[in-house]
Design a protein that fits this description.
The structure is a single chain. By secondary structure, the protein is mostly beta strands. It is 13% helix and 45% strand. The chain has a twelve-stranded mixed β-sheet, covered by helices on one side. The N terminus is likely disordered.
Length: 219
């Protein structure tokens, strides 16, 4: 992964350009690849016209490559790229699974990783979000197997990072994810292995990884 210096050089080259052209999806992905990681607070709203309900969750997210840690008041979801841990304190339960099995947590990074060959930019515009200039990229799925049929990305012009994404799946449910308090390359990435998880004592551990048998309490 390239370092922040590469990102800064890219940003400076953009500043020398009188009119900034919208980035491609690959260029937005490159902006993430140039980072060691990202930490932010988030608000996620999922609404469904079919079910007629809306749910809102707030929490924090830490991203680095294919690793992430998402914490909300009710749950901690962590993956090191190989194993995913889902800890639900109210159930006193930790579920382990292979990171490549099932639907992963949707983050801008996970979306972009899968987007290069599954979505195409149909239109774009400029706007302001949190007091900074953004592009909005309106995407449509190019494959019927894509999880979302359409999506909109808010891309910060200064560094090409996605600060908000809104995506509608095949069932008509809409996910609106907004990031705030974004910190690039935070120190926490180098502290205490944040993408691993040790189950607390006296919780049930259910291991669904390939070749594993479910384990009992205190495993």
């Amino acid at each position: 992964m390239a370092r922040l210096a590469c990102f800064i050089l890219c940003a400076l080259s953009l500043l020398a350009t009188p009119v900034r052209a919208q980035p491609t999806l690959a260029e937005v992905q490159d902006a993430y690849n140039a980072l060691d990681g990202l930490q932010a607070s988030f608000t996620q709203v999922i609404s469904s016209d079919f079910a007629g309900d809306t749910t809102q969750v707030k929490g924090s997210v830490l991203l680095s490559g294919n690793k992430y840690r998402v914490e909300t008041p009710d749950q901690i979801v962590t993956t090191n790229g190989t194993t995913t841990w889902i800890y639900t304190p109210t159930d006193s339960q930790v579920v382990l699974n292979d990171a490549d099995r099932g639907e992963s947590t949707v983050t801008p990074e996970t979306f972009l990783t899968a987007s290069a060959d599954q979505y195409a930019v149909q239109s774009s515009s400029t706007t302001s979000r949190l007091g900074t200039s953004h592009w909005t990229l309106h995407l449509e799925a190019t494959r019927s197997s894509s999880r979302f049929r359409e999506a909109t990305l808010w891309v910060r012009q200064s560094d090409r990072l996605v600060t908000r994404m809104r995506a509608t799946d095949r069932n008509g449910s809409t996910l609106d994810l907004r990031l705030t308090d974004i910190s690039l390359n935070p120190d926490v990435l180098r502290e205490n292995n944040p993408f691993s998880f040790s189950p607390p004592p006296n919780v049930e551990v259910i291991d669904l990884r390939r070749g594993q048998q479910p384990a009992g309490p205190d495993a």
